[in-house]
Amino acid sequence: GIGSQSQRGNKRDVLLGGLLVPGFDEQSCASRYQAAYYHKSMARRPSPYLIKRLREQEALQRRCGPGTEPYARASERLRSGQTDARDVDGCSYLVLISYRGLGNRMLAMASAFLYALLTGRVLLVDPGYGNTLADLFCEPFPGATWALPADFPLANFKELGEDAPESYGNVAVNRSGSVAGLRFVYLHLDHAASPASRLVYCDDHRQFLHRVQWVIIRTDQYMAPGLFFNPAYQEELGRLFPRKDSVFHLLSRYLLHPTNDIWGMVIRYYNSYLRNADERLGIQIRVFDTSRKPFQSVLDQILACASREHLLPAVATTGGAAPPALPAAGARSVAVLVTGLNSWYQESIREVYWTSATAGGEVVSVHQPSHEEYQIWFYSKHDMKALAEIYLLSLTDRIVTSGWSTFGYVGHGLGGHTPWVMFRPMNYSEPAPDPPCTRAMSMEPCSHGALSFECTRKEIDKVIDTGVLLPHVRPCEDMSWGLKLR
Ligand code: GDP
Question: Does the Cβ of 377 fall within 6 Å of ligand 1?
Fold first, then answer.
């Protein structure tokens, strides 16, 4: 914790090995330089090449971003449709549409940033309904804003869908790559995108996309694994990430800094309930069911996973249990952080440790910051709690997550933890899956919509198993058609 570190006079590497730049105003975004005092050290160090490319991207965002003359000229070209006029500034843009839950949005932001870096584009993020972006995240680039300005000339860009004439799949398949007369190209990389839309993963720069100044992207998922299939990016990705198991960890720690209000919630909770424990266990509970009632099978699954994998202390078997004794000096304390929309699971786990002693004398406390009951999209108060909880999960030592949940992916990815993943039950009224969970292969999130064909063949009508093509991209533990870096 921050206290013991500063007492020992031990200075933390607040810039995370060069991932962050010094010189930001610390007051306006305390989390940026304070996070290093709360997280364990980075699971992986950034490569010198990644650091160099980040600095170049920051310079690009400053030179071409909102408020600059190049941005004014580029948005005028987009408004007027004069896309044939020569672009003298050398600025091109990637606009990310914000939609779906917070975990989805964070995976989308991190991977859209990677795509912008690979393609030399300025990343601009749609602030979302209710302008929630600025309530949630600090600006990541010094001297530039990443928020798409309110006067962005395409009024209805949020309604773009796969069937739009500008969509990449249409341009590639039905217009043989001709962008004549198009003001922009739209990339539809939603988790359920068609194979034609996913051709963009294979865009090799010699085709049409590099000629398009404005690209709008819709994604609700983690695109990074898909980008590794593109021969045009493989060498660059290898230099950026010599270890492929930590792409999200590094990018999220670089990009996603919670605002002061959220950071205050994080550190107050951490200092009150988690900091003094000998061990912190995170349990992220996500039930994909619209009814708000809790399910016994989900509790069974959590307890079975925790016991099988020795995550929670075992309780003394009743009957022969010894009578209560004075607490042993130095009894090990375990703080359990539960996150979820419903509080029943947390109450039930807590009751286990109230009504029974632990076999090893450990002292267990169980905490859950909120129980919002149901999910709401684009409501700042609700999203702020969600982000504080995702961040708190990242501060635990070991973590159990619910399969399929992007909320959980971000929690363990930010923290740099390889989680135990609980398999998603397809019917919560049935007994819990057996085995209940497994240790994941890496700290990376699972991509729910990578590609189903090879970039060298582009046979979009034939689904092949892309999880065997690259040594460092494998099927996810929790979703057989998902792909994940390791
Ligand atoms: P996913 O649906 O599990 O992939 O995760 P998302 O974060 O994309 O969407 C779920 C949304 O439900 C979140 O954005 C929150 O608004 C809400 N939510 C789900 N689980 C929790 C939780 O444990 N705590 C809080 N505060 N909100 C949650």
Answer: no
